[in-house]
Write the structure tokens for this entry.
Amino acid sequence: MNNSVAKEKIVSLRKKRSLEDMRFKYYGFTAMCLSLAVLVFLLYTIFSKGYTAFQKTIVLLEVDYNQEVLKLTSDSSDEEMEKGKFFRVKKQAIENFFPDLSKSDIKLVKKLFSINVDNEIKDYFLDNPEVINTKQQIWVTAHSDVDQLLKGNSRRDVPEDRRKLNDIQLSYVDQLVEENRVKQVFNNFFFTKADSRHPEIAGVAGSFMGSLFTLFTVFILSFPVAIGASVYLEEFAPKNRITELIEVNISNLAAVPSIVFGLLGLGVLLNVFGLPRSTPLVGGSVLALMTLPTIIIACRASLKAVPPSIKEGALAVGATKTQAVFHHVVPLALPGTLTGTIIGLAQALGETAPLIMIGMIAFIPNIPTGLTEPSAALPVQIYLWVESAERGFQEKSAAAIMVILIFLFMMNAIAVFLRNRFERKW
Amino acid sequence: MSNSKILANGVDVYYGSKQALFGISMDIKEKEVTALIGPSGCGKSTFLRCINRMNDLIEICKVSGSIKVDNEEIISEKTDVVSLRSKIGMVFQKPNPFPKSIFDNVAYGPTIHGLVDSKNDLEEIVHSSLKKAGLFDEVKDRLNEPGTSLSGGQQQRLCIARAIAVNPEIILMDEPCSALDPIATAIIEELIDELRLNYTIIIVTHSMQQAARVSQKTCFFHLGELIETGETNKIFTNPDNTKTQDYITGRFG
């Protein structure tokens, strides 16, 4: 082949090759745009459905703290005040909410208020005992049906029998709006209360604490075990059939469906060992088993990434194997192992199926204060709320998804931070 | 012989089923520099790593034969590898300071061996080791900076200081200058010359000039066999074996 022919061939093929380059670039770009679009759509849906959950509707109610009705006096002790007849005060306040209400109207008005109003009236009094025998205008929580109507989540143009609020109640709400006796404020209940049958006072605090306790259990159980196992496998174990088998099975375990771990928890932890059902202790133990292989794999990778020359240097000055490993290799691998652990914890945070198996799906209206108290977890809470028929829970579930996503983002951000901050280049 | 420091006899090394060294026998004198030369893959590093049992790290590596250090057999199950290594320091091909401060790098050995009782003692050992390695003047104001922040040549001298700090009798050097520039190499070579007064040194090198400059004895390895060993002057001027002749004149390798 002479020179000019070769040149011609190169030129003609060159065009094809650069076209290939371009095509591949655009494929990649399109794929990236597509996944970004899906992500944006997802976040938009969640946010647009959920942001209203961060607000609640409150109604101005005139309460007469009459000492006769309360059966209290101005020198009652705290204990007596706790037992004051606040429900009677509330009943009176509702009867006088609009002028000239008939008995059936009162029933309708009562349904505009949250079940929590009794407590709010009481709390206001306990905070300000001097209001006894005075009339107070206080803002109390509205019923979820009113809340949803004012947020525009439920429609008023459907036939009356398919609405939660009937025509009279609608006119009441309209009147309240006109008189400025209703407004929307930040929904502190969402962050301070546990689950409830009543959407307006249901919050994520219970399940959030449950998730925290669960993650704590996961960390305490899986981190030391994972470090121990990976250090042993990486640095001390003889390379033979048995360790090979163990290695393969760790990878296999990482791929076992999480519900199987849930069954294990149900069968062994609950039925054989008799640990308390629905608790973060059991949930955390099950999730620790599930995340252990993931963390071990990450730990081993970061141990492997430490150059052998460091260990050799330590051994050459006469360090024992344990000293070389724990003085030099493990500290250098620590950022990587922590990152792996956080990723494992993030995985555990989002896991639902095994928790359902061990009963963390129970309805728990209290905020847990310990590892052995029944509690919910965030993903299970979302599952419960999504399933609920009440319209008020829809926005709650979207908002709870936001909470769990922010939690996850923060954990991942910490992982990225640790990686960047302590990463060493060799 | 009275001043024989290391006495190797019929050392065979296998990597799995592949034999890397064939019956190496060698006699290394005290307070001399012995250079191991030979083409790549000839087994000189392997032999060096037998002397402080560094080959133990390689799972498939099997060593047989006998190496005696101060008349004590070291190729044996019973050998205390940790104290052996405190007696035989090693400097590697690529400088490998710990990612810790300069001070901690040197202090590590004495600390784990419990050579010091007080902070002052430790400081003294670190300073004197750095002085012996000819690094003290360059780093005395920044002993708390990481060892990895030094230049390549300085890092290698730091590694030498680290090896000296545990007060060894023998120092093994595995191509200590192959990653360094000519100036840093010259400094290390000078240092080796000084260290010879107190230590027995075995150095693996690819540079014939370096072997000629720093060593008193030279051993030529080829394909896992020890071809010739003798006074450096003699090896480089009038070797007995034609293979040695061919190698040092650059005909192969």
